[in-house]
Amino acid sequence: MKKLILWVAVALLSVCFAACTSSNTPEGVTKAYISALQKGNYEKALRLYFNKGEEFNEQQEQETLQMFEDKMKSSVEDKGGIASYEIQAAEISEDGNSAIVPYTIHYGNGTSVDSKNKTIKVDGKWYLDPSK
Length: 132
What we know:
By secondary structure, this protein is α+β, with helices and mostly antiparallel strands.
């Protein structure tokens, strides 16, 4: 009986953990973005932005990724990398299809920056809004 209770508790914790860490929320997509920047995964960070249907060939995609990486890499590395970050609760619009997510990034050089990400919900999935 004790083993059954233990297994049920583990299963419930797993479900709760998965729900709390989902990137399909405004806070979740913001967390995934900052975490990707922190790890130097600029391609993943860029893919969290909503693509408004523009078609890019492979060369254009690589050029866009390279420009994004160069900009973000120098910005983050110049400040000693991302040491930690905090994400506040999203301010969700009345229609539920957009939100503003305030956050704070603490850099390795001791500085901190408060900012906000604009997010949008498209077909039930949250993205960063490139028109920010």
